[in-house]
Amino acid sequence: STMTISNSDFDGRTDYSASCDGRHYWTFIFYGKNTRFSMLNNYIHSTSGRSPKLGGDSSANVVAHIANNYWADNSGHSFEVGANAWVLAEGNYFKDTAMPLGTGSDGAIYAATATTECNSYLGRSCAANVVANSGSFNPRNGVTALSTVKAYSAISKYNPQAAMEWSKTKRNFGIGVLN
């Protein structure tokens, strides 16, 4: 029930779009009874929503660490956090993203805004997220998220980098573009 998604280019451009704007809507969905995962150093662009969708089902139990990713050119929401999901989001960069976090009150996401906020829970600083020409990215039930994720050493011992806008290069992503 654990995995890491890293160093990947998720290009949401499509001819078949639920939002009728040429952008993929169901980019990632994470449910499961004991789902634990990290998303690290990815480039997620040209989507319209659910990039990612976490929890939301009564039987779900999702703990996620989402760090050092770059979201760009997203017309809708990026994160959709539902019930039974606990997320630490840090060191991420959002550019031209209408809503980094979708509306609602379910679930728990700690969206780091300063580097020292995590010390009392994780024993380390968090890397602040950056939003540029984007909607706000604020915590939702943030203390609950931090209280839950602190039990996972892969999260508490992670050394996040400062959020930064990535230059568009294929060097960081797998073997490059596959045709």
TrEMBL record:
Coiled-coil portions: none
Gene Ontology terms, MF aspect: pectate lyase activity; pectin lyase activity
UniProt cross-references to Gene3D superfamilies, sorted A to Z: Single-stranded right-handed beta-helix, Pectin lyase-like (2.160.20.10)
Domain of life: Eukaryota
Alphabetic keyword roster: Disulfide bond
Enzyme class: lyase
Catalytic activity: Eliminative cleavage of (1->4)-alpha-D-galacturonan methyl ester to give oligosaccharides with 4-deoxy-6-O-methyl-alpha-D-galact-4-enuronosyl groups at their non-reducing ends
InterPro entries, sorted: Pectin_lyas_fold, Pectin_lyase_fold/virulence, PEL
Enzyme Commission identifier(s): 4.2.2.10
SUPFAM superfamilies reported for this sequence: Pectin lyase-like
Biological role stated in the UniProt entry: Pectinolytic enzymes consist of four classes of enzymes: pectin lyase, polygalacturonase, pectin methylesterase and rhamnogalacturonase. Among pectinolytic enzymes, pectin lyase is the most important in depolymerization of pectin, since it cleaves internal glycosidic bonds of highly methylated pectins.
Official protein name in the record: pectin lyase
Organism of this sequence: Phytophthora fragariae
